[in-house]
Amino acid sequence: MLSLFLRNLFFTVIHPGLIAGLIPYWILGDQFKAAFTHDFQLYHYAGIFIFTIGLVILLSCIIRFAVKGRGTLSPIDPTRRLVISGLYKYSRNPMYVGVIFILIGEAIFFRSGSLWWYVLAVFIGFNLFILLHEEPRLRKDFGEEYKEYCKRVRRWI
């Protein structure tokens, strides 16, 4: 169990940490620090709210992958069981939805056009990865169970 926890922690830092944390920080540059030198406005609180929703979704999915799927969010250390409970009853990709919400929250908070373009690029990248890699692998690994799941649950929301 400790190994599974450490692997999940590692891949959480590497995957969503890089995509929703470090890269937006690089994109923002000096704008990151400047945002915290003024009083917060309504848009700041809206960004925090959306960011928090995304973070809760993401963490919920990571925990479910570890507990129910006995694996991690990483494609190189995937779950051993198909996870179709929790938020996965409503979306086949809630973890990606959570990351997109985090990025949208950041774009709103920082009022950054560059981050909005980044959100779009990440969403397109997620779609391509899901269509070209993830779904074919899940069909191969979980067969009929995954095909039935796809009939019941939408790809996004």
Describe the structure.
- The chain has a single domain, classed as Four Helix Bundle (Hemerythrin (Met), subunit A).
- The mean pLDDT is 93.
- The protein is mainly alpha-helical.
- α1 packs antiparallel against α5.
Give a quick set of tags describing it.
73% helix; Four Helix Bundle (Hemerythrin (Met), subunit A); elongated; 157 residues; single chain; mainly alpha
Average pLDDT works out at 93
Largest sheet: none
| CATH topology category name | Four Helix Bundle (Hemerythrin (Met), subunit A)
So what's the CATH class?
A: Mainly Alpha
- Structural class category: mainly alpha
Q: Termini distance?
A: 32 Å
If classified by CATH, what would the architecture be?
Up-down Bundle
Number of domains: 1
Write down the overall geometry: elongated
* Number of H- or I-type helical stretches: 5
**Uncertain stretches:** none
Percent of residues in β-strands:
under 5%
The number of distinct β-strands equals 0
User: Which H/E pattern describes the elements?
Assistant: HHHHH
- What integer value in Å does the Rg equal? 17 Å
Percent in helix: over 70%
